[in-house]
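Task: encode each sequence below as C-alpha cells.

Item 1
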Amino acid sequence: MKKHVLLSILLVCLLVSCINSAWPDVDGMWQLKTIKDKTGRIQTVDTIYYSFQAQRMFTFSQLNALPMQFESTLIMYGYVDFPAKDCMVIQMDSSGEGWFWKLPWQSKSITYVIQKLTCKEMILESEGDIYRFIKF
C-alpha cells in the first residue's frame, strides 16, 4: 500500500514538472513599471498590468488615475504564443480593435524578446524599447 502511495506521488510530481516545460513561465499578473525607448528616455508607468494564464491567454488591464475619465478601467483580451524559448507573441482579440491605440504597442499584435524572467521580474524588448515588469 505504501509503495502505491509513494509511486503515485512521484508520478504526479513528474507529470506536473513536465507541463509546459518548453515555455517560459510567465503565468500570473505583472505590473509594468518602466518603458525605456530607443533614445534612452525612461517613462515610469504604474497603471498597466499584463496577465497570463495557462501560457495561452493574455489580459491587458489599464487603470485610469483621473476620476473624470469616461472609462475608469480598460481591459482587453488576447492570446500569447511562444515560437521560441526567448520569444513571446501577443495577439489581441479583434473585439477590442477600437481600443488598440491605448496599448503600449498600439496595434493588434506585438513580438517581445524575453531578456529576463524570474519569479519577481520580467524584462521584455520590442524594436529597441525595453519594458520592465514586476510580479504583482
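Item 2
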Amino acid sequence: MLNDEKLKERISLIIRYFWLDDLFKIGKELDLEYFKKYTSPWETNQYQAATEIAKNINDEKLFELTQKHIPRYGLSLGGFHGKYYTATPTGELRFESSYELIRKNTRKALGKWGDRAFGILQGLINRDGRATYFDLIDEIEKVLGYEFIPSSLLPRFSTLNLVFKTGSNKYPDWTMPSEIIPVVQEEVRAFKRPVRRPQRRETTDTRLLRIDREISAIVDKIVETRRHLDLLFERNFGTRLFKQDEMAVNDIHKPCSNEEEFNNRIMSLALLISEIETETILKHVKSSEPEVGSINYIEAFLNENAPNYDRSIIKDLRMIMTLRSKKYPVHRGDPAFIDALNYFGFTELPPDWQELWEAVLQRYHDSLRMLISTLISIS
C-alpha cells in the first residue's frame, strides 16, 4: 500500500515531469473520473490533476508513463532527488533514494561556507523553498542576525543540487526543490553555528524597528497558516482544529527583549497550542484514549489517521511547551529547560531572549506547515 509520504513525493515528481496538457492526456488515457468533466487541460488544476494520477497508478505504470511522455525540455531543478524517486535532468527515472547524496551535499555546503550556507538554506526553507533575490536577502538577515549578500555564493549551490536559479532573466527567483527540503532541514537544524558571529552596528531605535518588523512578519505567517489549516481541517473533518484567541495572537506580536517578556510571550503561544477542538479530534481517534493534553490528542490523531507523518511536528510543539512549563515562574526550574534551549540552538545561559523568541516562533510556524502537508496527503 502506498504510504502518505511516498504519495506526496510521487505527486511532486509527476508535476516536475509533466505539463498540464500532458497531465490531461494521461488522465484521459487512464479514464479517471476527475478528467471526464473537463474538455480542456486549462480547465483543470495542476496539483489536483497530478494527485488523481498519482493515486491511481503504481511504480510500474509511472515508469511506463515517463517513457511514453518524455519531458520535452528536460526536468528543471537538476532532475529529481527524493526519498523514493530519483530522476536525471533528461528524464531517466530510477526507483531509489537520493537522500544520502543530498545529505552529503548539504554537509559539504555547511562545512565549506559555514554560517553563510546556513543562512541561505534556512532562509529558502523559511520561504517554502522559493524567493526572489531581495526577499532572500531579507530572510537571510532574519536567520543570521546580520546582513549577508549571497550573490557570489548562490550559483555554487546548483552544482550540489540544492538551490537553482529559476524564473525569467528579468525577474529571477532562487528555488530549493520541494522534495529535498525535509532532508536539508534535518542537516541545517543539526548545524552548530559559530559562537562568534559578525555583528552589525545599529542604533537602538533602528534595532527596535527591525525587531518589530521581523516578529510581525513571522506572526503574520503564523496567523495565515493557522487559518489555512483550520479551513483544511474543517473541510475534511467538519470543524476547525483551533479555537480562536485574539488576545494571545496580539501578545505574540510584541517584541521580547528580556526574560520577563519571554515568559509572557511563551505563555501566550502555549495557549494557542493548547486551545483546540478536543471533542472533534477525539472522534477520529478510535484505537485508544490518549492522555490528557492538546499535543497528546494531536499526536494520537496523527498516529491513527496519518501514521507516516513527520514526528518533528509533535517534538517541536512539546519543546515549545517545555520552555513554558519547565522554568520560573511556572516551575521552579528543571534541566529539561536546558534541553529545550539546546533543541532550539541555544547553548548559553541566559540566552538572547529576543533571538530565542524568534526561533521559537519560526519553529511553531514550521510545525503548522508540516501539519498542512500531512492533512493534504490524507484528504
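Check on item 2: Residues 204-237 form the longest helix (34 residues). The mean pLDDT is 85.
End of task.
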